[in-house]
Amino acid sequence: MRANLNVLRAMLLLVATLALSSSWAGVKNERATPAYAEEQTMLQIEADSVVPDPGLLQSESGRVHMDRHYLGQYGSKEGNVIVQRGGNTWRHLRNGPLATIAGFILLAVPLAIFVFYRTIGPANQVAEAGRKMQRFNRWERQVHWATAFSFIALGITGIIIMYGKKIMLPWMGHDLFSWVAIISKYLHNFVGPLFILCSILMFFTFLKRNFYNRADWQWVKQGGGLISHKHVPAGFFNAGEKTWFWGGVALLGLIMSVTGLVLDFAVGQTRYVMQVANVLHVGAAAMYMAAAMGHAYIGTWGTPGAYEAMRYGTVDENWAKAHHQLWYEQMKTGVPPGMDKDGKMVPGPGGQPRPGPAH
């Protein structure tokens, strides 16, 4: 329980940090030194002037032509700005290391999943008992799929926005690509708030079942049986699913949502805030997509029978017993083995569930 409280505290701290970023952006960076060719050219022209005026970096000029962070609000002082140093920094970071690392992740992860599937293989098929158990109700499935489909739309349009100019423009041509880019931009902007709403609904829908307990540590120590193909006892959600919930849906989803709203509703935002938001947005989205690929693999080809649970809401009894033994026992007896009525592990030999045999 303490670990879950620490996670919630960290998420609240992150929200507060992002909310205060606009106040940081209002502080001028007086120590900033010129670093780019256009700045050097402007300063050289100023220095060579026969009749010196207050410099572009001096407050007496009444202008904010060159400043790394502060710009003033859109619509008021934007026309006074010739060079914003942070713009160059952001452009080189976005189009250089950030695009390269994100692209590598999005290519390496599906390749790694494919290699894992071909070498280690999926979990072994469980013989069906012919009796079904309800695992997810209709509301839970609708929330899950609404979140999934909205994120797929965001992922595709986001990749087009990020890489389309380099990958698609050369063979599409400017006319066709311009339409693809415009449609992608508007879809991304309008589907984004829908994804946020779905993520909030999913968080509260599945929150109760995603708190860690001592049984999860046993699952982690055995790697969830991914390589050995042993069925490690788990509750309704195993430790891997809970980590995806807290690290992906909650943490990365929160970062993407807050930064996405900053970028989507740019009125009143400084460029610096938007540049930081964009870097965080792209980084979180790349990690979310990578984790979602692993989640999708485990929920389909990686674990035969898992897709039916989210598609139809039911699973075979033998599947439930093999993959989620503690939940299965709880459904059958009311209390899972090795746990008390509150779902906490009972100390002693009886409190350590044994892994099931490989099927």
UniProtKB/TrEMBL annotation:
<dbReference type="GO" id="GO:0036397">
    <property type="term" value="F:formate dehydrogenase (quinone) activity"/>
</dbReference>
<keyword id="KW-1133">Transmembrane helix</keyword>
<dbReference type="GO" id="GO:0008863">
    <property type="term" value="F:formate dehydrogenase (NAD+) activity"/>
</dbReference>
<dbReference type="GO" id="GO:0015944">
    <property type="term" value="P:formate oxidation"/>
</dbReference>
<keyword id="KW-0732">Signal</keyword>
<feature type="transmembrane region" description="Helical">
    <location>
        <begin position="143"/>
        <end position="164"/>
    </location>
</feature>
<keyword id="KW-0472">Membrane</keyword>
<keyword id="KW-0408">Iron</keyword>
<feature type="transmembrane region" description="Helical">
    <location>
        <begin position="272"/>
        <end position="291"/>
    </location>
</feature>
<dbReference type="InterPro" id="IPR051817">
    <property type="entry name" value="FDH_cytochrome_b556_subunit"/>
</dbReference>
<feature type="compositionally biased region" description="Pro residues">
    <location>
        <begin position="350"/>
        <end position="359"/>
    </location>
</feature>
<dbReference type="GO" id="GO:0009061">
    <property type="term" value="P:anaerobic respiration"/>
</dbReference>
<dbReference type="GO" id="GO:0009055">
    <property type="term" value="F:electron transfer activity"/>
</dbReference>
<keyword id="KW-1003">Cell membrane</keyword>
<keyword id="KW-0249">Electron transport</keyword>
<keyword id="KW-0813">Transport</keyword>
<feature type="signal peptide">
    <location>
        <begin position="1"/>
        <end position="25"/>
    </location>
</feature>
<comment type="similarity">
    <text>Belongs to the formate dehydrogenase gamma subunit family.</text>
</comment>
<dbReference type="InterPro" id="IPR011577">
    <property type="entry name" value="Cyt_b561_bac/Ni-Hgenase"/>
</dbReference>
<dbReference type="GO" id="GO:0009326">
    <property type="term" value="C:formate dehydrogenase complex"/>
</dbReference>
<feature type="domain" description="Cytochrome b561 bacterial/Ni-hydrogenase">
    <location>
        <begin position="135"/>
        <end position="307"/>
    </location>
</feature>
<dbReference type="InterPro" id="IPR006471">
    <property type="entry name" value="Formate_DH_gsu"/>
</dbReference>
<feature type="region of interest" description="Disordered">
    <location>
        <begin position="338"/>
        <end position="359"/>
    </location>
</feature>
<dbReference type="InterPro" id="IPR016174">
    <property type="entry name" value="Di-haem_cyt_TM"/>
</dbReference>
<dbReference type="Pfam" id="PF01292">
    <property type="entry name" value="Ni_hydr_CYTB"/>
</dbReference>
<keyword id="KW-0479">Metal-binding</keyword>
<dbReference type="GO" id="GO:0005886">
    <property type="term" value="C:plasma membrane"/>
</dbReference>
<feature type="transmembrane region" description="Helical">
    <location>
        <begin position="176"/>
        <end position="204"/>
    </location>
</feature>
<dbReference type="GO" id="GO:0022904">
    <property type="term" value="P:respiratory electron transport chain"/>
</dbReference>
<protein>
    <submittedName>
        <fullName>Formate dehydrogenase, gamma subunit</fullName>
    </submittedName>
</protein>
<dbReference type="GO" id="GO:0046872">
    <property type="term" value="F:metal ion binding"/>
</dbReference>
<feature type="transmembrane region" description="Helical">
    <location>
        <begin position="98"/>
        <end position="117"/>
    </location>
</feature>
<feature type="transmembrane region" description="Helical">
    <location>
        <begin position="244"/>
        <end position="266"/>
    </location>
</feature>
<keyword id="KW-0349">Heme</keyword>
<keyword id="KW-0812">Transmembrane</keyword>
